[in-house]
Amino acid sequence: MKKTVLVSGGAGFIGSHVTVELIGAGYEVVVADNLSNCDMTCFEGVKKITGRDDIPFEKVDFCDAAATEALFAKYKIDAVIHFAAFKAVGESVEKPVLYYKNNLGSFLNVLEAAERQGGCNVLFSSSATVYGQPEKLPVTEESPRQPATSPYGATKQMCEDILQDTVKASGGKIKGILLRYFNPIGAHPSALIGELPRGVPNNLVPFITQTAIGKRACLSIFGDDYPTPDGTCLRDYIDIVDLAKAHVYAVTRMMEGKMDEPCEIFNVGTGRPVSVMELVTAFERVNGLKLNYKIAPRRPGDVTAVWADPTRANTVLGWKAERTVEETLRSAWEWEKHLAGK
Ligand code: UD1
Question: For the whole prediction, is pTM greater than 0.90?
C-alpha cells in the first residue's frame, strides 16, 4: 500500500516542487492550500509534470480546526509536511497578530488532528532565520538559535519548539523533523512550476528575474559596505528541486522508523556562500543579458552572512545538493520567460 503524505500549503512555491518529488518517489500526495498567497498555476503544473490528473486538491485553511480535522478524517495521513504559513518578514513586523495567529494557529490545528488520529509523522518547514547572525560560520544544527528579529522569525522558532514538545509528550506516536532551509531559489527544469510572488517581490531572485523581463525597472542591491569580500551579503542559495528532494529523504526516514531521535533537525543548504553581487553577475553570465541594478542602502534586519554546514543532511539523510548555482539561475530565468509567455 502506498503511503499518503499531506502537503499543507502544497500549491505554493516549495510545496509544489515537493509534491512532484514525492509523487516521483511513489507516495500518494494530498495537496491542501487556502490559496491566500498563490493560485492554481503551480498545482496545474504539478499535474502536467507528473502526468497525474488525479492528485487530490483540498481548499483548506488550516486555521480552521474543524476543516483540518475533517481532512485527516477523509484521508489516512501517514505524514504531513507543513508549509502553510505567511513568510514576508517586513509584513510580519507591521502585522504581528496576523502572523502569530496564522502561522501558529494552523500548525497547532495540524498537530491536534495528528494527535487525534493517534499519531503521525510531522515535517515542519523551518528556516535559517532561527540562527540570526551566527557567531561562527558555517552553522551546524547545534549552533545556537538567536533571538528572532521579526514576528515571522519568532513563529519559526515557536513552531520548532511546539513540535519538539509535542513529539516528547506523544510517547513515540508523533515523530518530527525540522528542516531549516537556507535560501531556496530557481524553478523546476520543465519551467512549469516556480516562484510566483504577489506584488513586488521581497526576495532577491524573483526581483532579479522580474527586472530582467522588464516588470521592474531596476534591482536595488541592499548594501555594498558589509564586511564581506565584495561588500554585499553572503547567503547559501539552495536549488528548489534539491531542496524538495531533501523532503523525500526526510519523510522516508520517518516512515521507515530509522530516526535516531524522535525529533530531528537538518540544515538544508549547499555549504557554499555566494554574495549578492556574485549571484547577479552569474545570472547575467549564464543567461547572456545585462541587468539594470544600483547599489542602495542596507535593508533593515538583514544579516551579513549565513551559510550551512550540511554535513548532517549529507551523512545521516543521505541527501546532497546537486545543481550548480548556474543551472539554478538558468531555471529561474526559464520560469520567468514561461510566465511571460516567451
Ligand atoms: C529572507 C528572510 C528569511 C526568510 C526568507 C524567505 C531575513 C533576514 N531573512 O531571507 O528569514 O526565510 O527571506 O522569505 O529577512 N537583496 C537585495 N535586493 C533585493 C532583495 C534582496 O540586495 O531586492 C539581498 C538581501 O539584502 C540579502 C540577499 O539579497 O542579502 C537575499 O535576500 P532575500 O532573498 O530576501 O533572502 P533573505 O533575506 O536571506
Answer: yes
pLDDT in tens, 211-245: 999 999 999 999 999 999 999 999 999 999 999 99
325 CA distance to ligand 1 centroid (A)? 17
Dihedral (Cα; 181, 119, 11, 186), 10-degree rounding: 20
Rounded to whole angstroms, how far apart are CA atoms 197 and 38? Answer: 8
Nearest atom in ligand 1 to 207's CA: 23
As to burial, measured by CB atoms within 10 angstroms (0-12 exposed, 13-18 middle, 19+ buried), residue 285 is exposed
Residue having the nearest C-alpha atom to atom 34 of ligand 1: 203
Q: How many CA atoms lie within 13 A of 257 on its CB side?
A: 2
Give the model's pLDDT for residue 194. 98
Span from the CA of 147 to the centroid of ligand 1 (angstroms): 18
pLDDT tens track for 283-336: 999 999 999 999 999 999 999 999 999 999 999 999 999 999 999 999 999 999
User: Among all residues, which ones are annotated catalytic?
Assistant: 152
Q: Nearest C-alpha to atom 36 of ligand 1 is from which residue?
A: 203
Q: Looking up cell 538544508, which residue turns up?
A: 268
Domains and CATH numbers, the chain: 4-185+238-268 (3.40.50.720), 204-235+271-337 (3.90.25.10)
DSSP string of 286-328, one letter each residue: HHT----EEEEPPPTT--SB--B--HHIIIII-----S-HHHH
* Amino acid occupying residue 333: W
Can you tell me the distance from the alpha carbon of 45 to that of 102, in angstroms, rounded to the nearest whole number?
27
